[in-house]
Structures are given as C-alpha cells and as structure tokens.
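Re-run requested by the PI after the first attempt was lost when the workstation crashed. Everything re-entered from the original request form. Ligand of interest: pyridoxal-5'-phosphate.
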Amino acid sequence: MGKNIESNLANTPHFNPLNPQEFRKQAHEMVDFIADYYQNIESYPVLSQVQPGYLRANLPQNAPSLPESLETSLEDVKNQIIPGMTHWLSPNFFAFFPSTVSTAGFLGEMLCTCFNSVGFNWIASPAATELEMLVIDWLADMLKLPKSFMFQGTGGGVIQNTTSEAILVTLIAARDKALDVDGSGNLNKLVVYASDQTHSTFAKACKMVGISPRNIRLIPTTIDAGFSLSPIQLKAAVEADMENGDHFHHDVDPIKLLAGVAKEHGMWVHVDAANAGSACICPEFRHHLNGVELVDSLSLSPHKWLLSGLDCCCLWVKNPTALVKALSTNPEYLRNKQSESDSVVDFKDWQVGTGRRFKSLRLWLIFRTYGVVNLQDHIRSDVGMAKIFEDFVRSDPRFEIVVPREFGLVCFRLNPDETFGSDYTELSNQKLLDWVNSTGRVYMTHTKVGGIYVLRFAVGATLTGDNHVVAAWKLIKEGADALLKTV
Ligand SMILES: *Cc1c(COP(=O)(O)O)cnc(C)c1O
C-alpha cells in the first residue's frame, strides 16, 4: 500500500509557481519589456487621455481558468494598460512632485522581492533589521543629523511606507507622551499646531489619533513671508491656548526659532521634510535643517527625490522609547530570546503594520553604487533645471513667479491684464493648464496659495533633461499665445 502511494506521488506533476528556469526566462523577457518602456516613454501622452471605466470594457470579465502566456498578457499591458497610465516616469512629467526611480533602486527592489523577508522582528530576519539600521544611520550622516537621531547615538530611525504613516506614528507617540505627562487622560486637552501650508495628511493623522478638529491650530501664513510659518504667530497661538489651559504639539519651517517656541512649552516637534529634505545632502542646502537638533522627529521620503521608487519614507526619532512604548505588541508567537533581552530592534514596534518588507536593500544599493557625490549631482541638476524654467518665466512679462523658488518647484501664473480682475486671471490660467495637459506633451498641475490660483512646474523626474524643460516652456508659451490672441 505505502509503496503505491509513494510511486503515485512521484508521478503527479504539481504546479510550481517558482521554477528557477522558468523564472530566469520570463524575468529576462520582463526586463526587456521594461527597458523598452523606458526607451519609448516619450511616445506616450504623459497624462492619460482615457475615460473612466475604460479598462473593464476592454479586458475579460473573469480570470481565465486555464493559463495564458506571459506574451499575451504583455500584449494587453501594451494595448490596454499603458494607454490608461499617466506616466510618472516620463521626462515631461512636471505635475505634483517628482517620484524618482533609478536602476539601483530597481535592482534593490528585485532583491527585496527575491527574499520576500517579512522582518517584523530581529529574529525573523536579522539582516533585514540590521541593514535598515545601518542605512538609516548612513542617510542621517549624509544629512548631517546630530548623533541623537542615530542608532550610533541615542536615537534611531525606521523606513515607513509613506509620510502619512510617519506622521501618524509620530503623533501617536507624541500623544501618549503628552497624556503621560498630563496624567488626566483627557484627549480634549491636547492641541496640535501646524502651518496652514501643511500637507493634508496631517489633519488626517490627527483624526486617526483622536485629536479633535477643534484642537488643530493651523497658523496662517502669508505671501509676503513666502508662506513660511512665523515663530511669532506660533508663540501667540500657543500662549492663547495656555491661557485656556490647553497644551501640546507640532510642525515646522524656520526650525530653530519654531522649535525654540515649542520647547518652552514642552511640545513634541516634528519636521516633515518629505520632498525638499533630500536636498540637504548638499552642503549648500543643509542650512534648511538648522535647528534640527532641537526637534523630536524628522521624516523624509527618498521615494520622492532620492531615487528609491515608491514607497520609502525615512523617519528618525530622538526618543525611540516613546515610539516603541506607544506601538509595541508582544504576542506569544513572536516571543524570542533576543527580543526579550532588549538587545535588538524589533521594527514592528516602530510602525502601523506587523509584517514589513526588506526595503533598505533599495537605499543601500543606491547609496553604495552611486555614492554621495552622484546623489548630490542629481539634486543639483534638478534645482538647476528649475532655475532655468524660473528664468524663462521671469523673462516673459505676461507671466509672473508667485512664490519664490527654493528647490525644484516653480509656482507661476499667467497674469495677462489685471484690469479684467482676478476671476479672469484664474480662468485664463485654468484654460492654459487644460490646453497644455490636453496636448499630452507635458503634464503640470495647479494649486491655490493664499487664495491665488498658481501653476506648478515640478522639475525632477529621473529622465528629465534641460531639453525637456526648454520644450515644456515653448509649449506653455504657445498656449499663452493662442489664449491671449482669442481675447
Ligand atoms: C508628499 C508629501 C506628503 C505626503 O506623502 P505620502 O508619502 O504620500 O504620505 C506629506 N508631506 C509633504 C511635505 C509632502 O511633500
């Protein structure tokens, strides 16, 4: 009997979803497909021109019961998926913010997927934890952060998925710390402060941690002060709250002065440097972090400007104990000698989720194979291109720069004739933006600052070169010519 079962088993051909020979063959095909995509990326409209619901109408309604080849699937990618993509990697993508990628980041991602380690604690994959601790210290060193933020010092850092999560976990740590100090357990007594220019994810995080909207103070900024948060205004807002018996936390701009005000009142200060923070690896931009030694936490997303690809947000904290205390769990099945002896870091206690990917491989390969000099060069060349664009705008009297440019983002607008009023100016800019984007040759977005409708030209997609910036400006001028002629 037993023998029969064994020989039957040996003859059953099982489905093997990870056959190394098949993997080698198909992965090579995929690499060719990807390299072709990068090579031809400029042939696609940057902003997708499809209508909502287009995809379901063009693909089968059910998963196939029998296998189909990779080739036919890739045909669908080419014919159905790609036309519905907005191409963030296009060199003509100037919308939102640049989401940068690189060969090294890509290869690191391949390794991360290759190992598929789920390193929630040290023992689950010691190298995953230890490499993350190493690269997060490397980046802290590149940014000249004080040792108090480094594992080598008294602090530490962690790779979160997004800034939103970094802000959420920081706010949880700050909340619990404030509640501990206060002793009343009354969430309603906690107040958070931020600039009115703060990213919308901040209000969302407040909601998630239970801070009442009544207790969120968004300090108004002005165009004259370049929309930066004023320490004097912050102080006034905090003092008004203190009179009412409130107390607590948060956010940034001229770090040193703001942190000074916040620290007088024992607040937790967080710096959200998601995008521009990466520039601080260059000595000429590092002054933007002056005063960082006074804050409690800082987050920065290499998936924006440091070539890592989505998603990768680095968060440093001076007091990891506060974070771990707020987020740690200790279920029986995760218990082990090393964790219990407190000799290791268990990153599950630094984040929302339990499982986590080995993402530090991406940063590690980027830092190692490019070196700091090339990363600095990459930042400088983007800032240089933004400067070129800014000079173009300044050279044409029909346009104006609305907010002084600091890094790779140019906020400008067409300002044809004030005598027609501000609604007319706004409408003209909307029309210009729609026209530019409808060509599929450039994609830009808009925002409102201080009530003014502005066009945003965000330079920094990995493949963007001077020629793309020149062509984009030519196109924008063409749009303005046509628009102003029809008046
Ligand atoms: C992009 C950005 C965010 C949001 O980042 P996610 O990683 O998408 O959550 C928050 N703050 C600032 C300053 C940003 O630039």
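Saved to the shared folder this time. Residues 97, 162-164, 199, 201, 272, 274-275, 301, 313 surround pyridoxal-5'-phosphate (CB under 6 Å).
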